[in-house]
Design goal:
alpha/beta, putative 2-phosphosulfolactate phosphatase, five-stranded parallel β-sheet, 9 helices, homodimer
């Protein structure tokens, strides 16, 4: 049996060995959900960046620039961070430069891994099917919120672990914790997550529609994959 | 209402503000359980230290030296880390120099707090009663295992939060996560914790008796308290 571990925050990643592992990056609200949505709607590449400047520079080089700050599209950008923006016909075959702080940090820190994949509830079963066949050890890497552990990413980790029980054995306590949390929440994820700090933060920004969308399972059969500085469809 | 937060690992502590808060340090297997047991059996002071050398130096100055490495009492020390060692008649009124890596690190990092208290299942209700009356914000600080999140400390955090729901509101996702885990485990904590990595590690060292003891609730009515480099009974 292969092994599965969970890193609950980028601040903890140095405690994990990444070599020889598949790393699954998760940032449910909203970076990885939007990435998955984009590839499901025929976006060709996504370049995740932290800085707004870098994103605008990529726009000057021909990319579509996507970014929000405090719920508003950043001046000069073409679109915001909502997964609904990533469904646009105009993105087909295009490269999107996406600003995301937590998600980009996680991808940067995972570079030593054998393979870096993007996970969300939207593609969880398809991702699990791929991972089952991979016969490799897995680290689920939660992007968290400004370094802190968050509930929605941990819950995704628990869900993915449950889908992989036949092929992967739990290797650390964080994975046990995530699975336990998911088992308690699975009957009603939305109610379970209502008190979660980040969902509350986003709800205040009037993006409840985005949140509901990001918690939908198995909507898409794509797996974004990090390769040479860019995300492409696997 | 006052606030309650949980820091799941010393590697995350820099993300939390400690000023004006009571910090509860927890390292269930076995440092904080042994500390509580010691004060319940009339130990006068405990000096937590990381290095064996420092512990032996304190022995030379008149302390009782306690420390284990890989399940064996360290050469030159008077006793090991088991809570049962802390029940000895010979410790009454004495100062114990205790080597503990995870626990000491957590105490070092918590120095900015208004008050540093020691928690374990053994004193959890007594501690909760004190905290209810304190009318201050609380950070439960899990010592973890070599920087990683562990299950037994997180579970204690969830238990303590549940005991404080009437006076303290949950402030971060880690606290929600810990409470959720505890709610699932509370019917049968021992079974729930059986797969936990650290318990398995310790079980291999033939200290199942210690583990069973550390998961007992409300055995003692003491609260160790950090003051001027030493732990004393509150």
């Amino acid at each position: 049996m292969n092994k599965i571990e969970v890193c609950l925050s980028p601040a903890l990643i140095d405690l994990y060995s990444l070599k020889g592992k598949i790393v699954v990056i998760v940032d449910i609200l909203r970076a990885t959900s939007s990435m998955v949505t984009g590839f499901a709607h025929s976006v060709e590449k996504i370049i995740p960046v932290t800085a707004v400047d870098k994103c605008l520079q990529l726009k000057a080089e021909g990319c579509i620039a996507a970014g929000e700050r405090n719920g508003q599209i950043v001046e000069g950008m073409d679109m915001g961070n909502s997964p609904f923006s990533y469904m646009a016909e105009t993105l087909k075959g295009k490269t999107v430069a996406m600003t995301t702080t937590n998600g980009t940090l996680a991808i940067e820190k995972a570079r030593e891994a054998t393979q870096i994949l993007i996970g969300a509830f939207l593609n969880i079963q398809h991702l699990a099917d791929h991972l089952k066949q991979s016969k490799q050890d897995i680290l689920i890497f939660c992007a968290g919120w400004k370094g802190r552990v968050n509930m929605e990413d941990s819950l995704f980790a628990g869900n993915l672990i449950q889908l992989l029980t036949a092929t992967h054995s739990i290797e650390d306590d964080s994975a046990h914790l995530a699975l336990s949390m998911y088992q308690q929440a699975q009957g009603d994820i939305a109610t379970y997550l209502a008190p979660c700090a980040h969902a509350q933060r986003l709800a205040k920004m009037n993006i409840q529609k985005d949140i509901d969308f990001c918690f939908q399972k198995d909507k898409y059969q794509v797996i974004p994959h990090f390769k040479e500085g860019k995300l492409v469809n696997l």
